[in-house]
Batch of 3 targets.
Target 1
Amino acid sequence: MSEIVKTVETFYESVKQHPNHRYMSWEHCFNAFKNSDNCDVDYLSLHLAFYLASWGMYRGSSALLWKDYKVHYEAVNIIKNYPSLQCRIGNEVQESQISKILSAKRDLENYYRSIGYTKPTKTGSTEGFVSATDTLITKILLGTLGCVPAYDRLLVIGFKGSKINKGFNEKSLKSIFEFINNNLVSLKEIQSRINLDGSYYPLMKIVDMYFWEIGRIQNPRLIEVD
């Protein structure tokens, strides 16, 4: 068994052995967006909001905490503009689509940065705009299209020692595709094992699980806050 297969299997089994584990919110959201042609924007926005909350994007310091789920309507419409990035069985995202991935990134960034919010404080209130971080944008893209890993702290820590740049940019994406090509046999092996459960996990999700688990092993204290 390769190190990649063993590492991803460890992560996957730790989730599956607990009913209704919060990380399963990714699977529910991704499956909803795979069938987006049959779902309205309201339904998809609700799935996206709960997934983001489960994955740490609604903690106390987040601007999104002060908005309801309907704030994601326009994000859903943006995602719908990139059907070719929707990963399915037989349709994994390709290196030739990096420009489209970055275009989706820019569209989502521009939208979220335009969202203002008001937060109550002890002396009144404070106002600001949503911070469209790499973490937020990549978690959205992973949860809806499955076309990139989520660049949170543990994943970035996991990138150390590899050739993958920690920033969500063209150079980093090219390195990820290189990693996929160099380890395709192992990645497809664990993908096939997961698929036996009846759940399709795209290769980018497998990459996400692999590097996230490496980051968790190296920094277990971060698991409670990431």
Note: The first strand starts at residue 116 and ends at 121.
Target 2
Amino acid sequence: MKFRLKAFGLHLLASASALSLILGTLYLGWYHWPGWYLAEVVRVVLVMIGADVVVGPLLTFIVARSSKPRRELVRDIGMIVAVQLIALIYGTVSLWSGRPLYYAFSESVLQLVQAYDISADEWALGNQQNPQFGPHWYSVPRWIWAPLPKDPAERAKMVGSVISGGDDVISMPRYFKPWEQGLPELRAQLKKADALGYFYGRDRKILKERLRAAGFDPEAADTMVLTGRGRPVLAVFDPKTLKITAMFTAT
């Protein structure tokens, strides 16, 4: 039993260290709040934890016996580690492919833009035509303004593309502009929480209670919704500086 516990402990330490390094890097670089919430990556992370920190070490505890020939023991643990690595690589690639790259203000909402929202062609065009905001592999999340094109024909073409399921302006970095340039338009789009249209019933009630508890006026027109693949977030702006002062969820 002592041998098994030692093998289990070493395996758990190695697995937890590797997973913590990967998840910590991804979180600090790309998934810090509200990225992880909007990208809805909790399930992927739980699968990674289950495979690498729970199942792997537990299987080692089961197969590790001091009486087992060393060659057989190495083979068994090697197979367990191989399966763990596959799960770890799969989860890491999934998180990397979906890493947050932009928080975009477009029209009347804020939207999370993830790496896989941008096609290879748009990725290249962004770097060619708008290098200031073009994405790179090392890019960390940036707040940007993504207005529709001013040219009527180009604008109509883009709207048609969105209706037919094509790319939206938030997935086209060549159109991105500095966040500060969009603030006048953003100010005009701020609404009170009840008027946003993204929260209903119980969610709306919870958000109003949380606004009051945090010292905000639920009837003030200083909020905007921030959307992603997960449930939306309510962003509260300072009416003078237009800086985000707080974010609330209804969960």
Note: Strands lie at 100-106, 109-114, 142-145, 177-178, 223-227, 233-237, 244-248.
Target 3
Amino acid sequence: MPRVTMIGDSVSGAIAYEQAAQATLRRGAVVSLQLAPCRRVGQTSCPHKDTTAPTVLQLIQTLGSTLADTTVIVAVGYNDFEQAYAGNIEDALLALRAVDVKRVLWVTLRAERQSYLAMNDMIRAAAARHPEMTVVDWNLYSRGHPDWFQPDGLHLNWQGARAMATLLHETLVDLGIVTEPAAKKKTLRVSAPSVVRARAGRPYASRLVARGGTAPYRWARASGVVPTGLRLSVAGRLTGTPAARGRFTFVVRVTDASRATATRRVVVQIA
């Protein structure tokens, strides 16, 4: 089975206390959970109960070659400094490449603070430069679900832990890293937000998601015009730097391994 290592802080750490969430995440994969409160990516982690968690960079160095050929999920950032986050992401990706990690999933931050919106832009910008990196948009997925969170709006309750594990598992399936049993597969469809939001002059990266069907998936534009500065790859990555503000509409088509197809209208709002 494929091997997955999840590196997280106290937000994703709720998965360690919710057996159903762990069962979801481990379906079809061997998963190692490296979750610790107050973890940061590069700067020294903040202390918690007289202990200081190793940073993402330190943990990569410690695990070393054991990470080779694994998929690494990074869900860290709530304790990080906004000014250093972009550079720390870059350092982490280089460190993961050095130990032969082929795929990195980086989880966006729930934007309860303005700084987290900017840090999510940094995550997308890094994905635009690094094809091995996939953005897992927890901020979007959790929108409209205050019932998943503790009073601070960030830390997860048992429902949130299960929801995050479900999103991560679905992403692993969509990328073809994990194979879903045939009995669980559903009709091929495109899952996308009603409106994709980007900013003119700022790097953007996201991945279109197919549900059901049989991986691998191939993507193409079926009709309409992709905004200038953005391009859609056959892997479903929408990347680039939008050139102009406006509202743009186009239709995407996904084809799975059995040649089944599905389409969906995509609206891109560029501010």
Note: The mean pLDDT is 91.
